[in-house]
Write a structure and sequence with these properties.
82% helix
């Protein structure tokens, strides 16, 4: 129950962040247009693709070692020194690459015309990499409130600056400055909760324990970062900043589903690590099955509604300029669902000291994704003799990611069965069948009824969610036990008590 409440808190916090960010996005896209968003998101993706150098698996190693009870001061000191070194390496490689591209090769950074934009984005990522030491430590200690509260406040500050920039016509540079100020706010608040934590001198023994876990992940982290940004980079290279803006805008909506994956990652990894250290294999299996099932109950109805009402959601919550990206939203919603449902299985393998398996799979998935994007995104690549390609742009990028995630999910379940003896349960398949039925029903409703207002969307979405739970109950996949579970986890009084107790520590 405690782990579930922590996951619920992180999920709620991430959704608050997504909602606040979405409100800010509405102001930006309606005042500045998709091209401005495209230029900004392209800069984020371009610089962000270098952040793998700052990660290299050591973040996950830190969460795991802290959760296992290693000396906290030595863990923090060791990880901080690692992160500072790797962030410096990231900065050096980016500066060299930028100089070589612009000065030696005399090339331009396409679709980035705003002076100072790249510099501000670089400063944002530097701050993010260093500040993340604190929330990762909180995650290892399963202190979700200390992760959630600073993130909510930081996102709110960032979003207010977004809105001000749009209303006052301050330009794209202030979108990047908003990100920078937001992460600095997170850092200041995190320092307050971090003030009593010990920071000891790094030592070789602790570093070796981090290295043992991180090295199998390091190579995969390169491809993991590429998977995060490569879609926007491909669209930016072969299409325009306008196309990137359309993709980025609807991608923000899909984040509502994807936030559950972040919550699972943050709290499930330390919980499974503890169980694995205690050799409690049965409890790990139960935790994975419960996580997948309850996540599905929450996220599947949201995905159904997003898929059915994609154009209406874009019209109501963004602007009509983004309606051409409605198919992209449908695909990305399914992508987000697959990722969320896959996450308990990948966390189980990593928590059971098999990061090598997930790392190898991540590399294969990244390579497959890049190959599919080369085929599906551009019209042609004359430099390498490729002509008459599919030229699907953002839609092609979304399809490439979806295919990759589905194949990755099947592979994760096979690996979990082979090495941890965990098999998918029948309840999962009942959820999928129920989702197909509800989607078919709501599709007929969508064809018959015109929806133009947010409360109409809310009404039909709620109707679809209730229908989904009703059918699950009829099939015996949603019981009184499940209802009581959600009631206890989401109880405002219980959640308030938990947050208060944690923040007082």
């Amino acid at each position: 129950m405690a782990t579930s409440r922590k996951i619920a808190l992180l999920f709620a916090a991430e959704n608050v962040n997504a909602i606040v960010g979405w409100i800010a996005l509405i102001f930006v896209v309606r005042r500045m247009g998709a091209s401005a968003i495209g230029e900004f998101s392209y800069a984020l993706s371009l610089v962000g693709s270098f952040t793998f150098l700052a990660f290299l698996g050591f973040g996950m190693a830190h969460v795991k070692r802290v959760s296992e009870g290693l000396d906290l001061g030595r863990c923090i000191g060791t990880f901080l020194s690692i992160r500072l070194f790797l962030t410096s390496l990231m900065l050096f490689v980016f500066i060299f690459s930028y100089w070589a591209w612009t000065a030696i090769l005399d090339k331009e950074i396409y679709d980035i015309q705003t002076p100072g934009l790249i510099l501000t984005v670089v400063l944002y990522y530097i701050a993010f990499c260093i500040i993340s030491v604190m929330p990762m430590t909180f995650s290892g200690l399963e202190q979700s409130a200390r992760v959630a509260i600073p993130n909510i406040i930081g996102t709110t500050v960032r979003s207010l600056i977004f809105i001000a920039a749009a209303v006052m016509g301050l330009g794209v540079i202030w979108l990047a400055r908003a990100y920078l100020i937001g992460i600095l706010t997170v850092g200041l608040l995190s320092i307050w909760y971090f003030r009593d934590f010990p920071i000891s001198k790094p030592d070789s023994k602790t570093f070796d324990s981090y290295k043992v876990y991180a090295l199998p992940v390091a190579f995969a982290s390169i491809f993991g970062v590429l998977r995060q940004y490569i879609d926007k980079i491909f669209i930016g290279i072969f299409w325009t900043e306008y196309q990137v803006g359309l993709y980025f805008g609807v991608e923000r909506i899909a984040l509502f589903i994807g936030t559950m994956a972040l919550a699972i990652e943050g709290m499930l990894l330390p919980a499974i690590s503890n169980l694995h250290a205690s050799k409690k294999g049965r409890e790990i299996r139960v935790l994975v099955h419960d996580a997948e099932r309850y996540v599905g109950m929450v996220c599947i109805p949201i995905v159904i509604m997003t898929f059915v009402w994609s154009s209406e959601i874009i019209l109501v919550f963004i602007s009509k300029e983004f309606i051409p990206a409605s198919n992209i939203l449908k695909i990305l919603a399914i992508v987000a669902l697959v990722r969320v449902l896959n996450r308990p299985w990948s966390v189980a393998l990593r928590g059971a000291d098999r990061p090598d398996l997930t790392s190898f799979l991540s590399v294969l998935m990244a390579i497959l994704s890049i190959i599919l994007m080369i085929i599906l995104v551009p019209n042609r690549i004359p430099q390498v003799g490729l002509e008459n390609l599919y030229g699907m742009g953002g839609e092609g990028a979304a399809y490439a990611i979806l295919i990759t995630e589905i194949l990755g999910g099947l592979s994760l379940r096979f690996l979990a069965f082979k090495y941890l003896n965990i098999l998918p349960k029948s309840n999962f398949f009942v959820q999928i069948i129920t989702a197909v039925i509800v989607c078919s029903v709501m599709w007929q409703v969508q064809l018959s009824i015109e929806v133009e207002r947010w409360f109409e969307l809310l009404f039909f979405s709620s109707l679809g969610g209730l229908l989904y739970l009703f059918l699950l109950s009829m099939f015996g996949a949603f019981t009184n036990k499940d209802f009581n579970f959600f009631w206890n986890v989401l109880s405002p009084n219980s959640m308030k008590k938990y947050v208060g107790e944690e923040l007082k520590r």
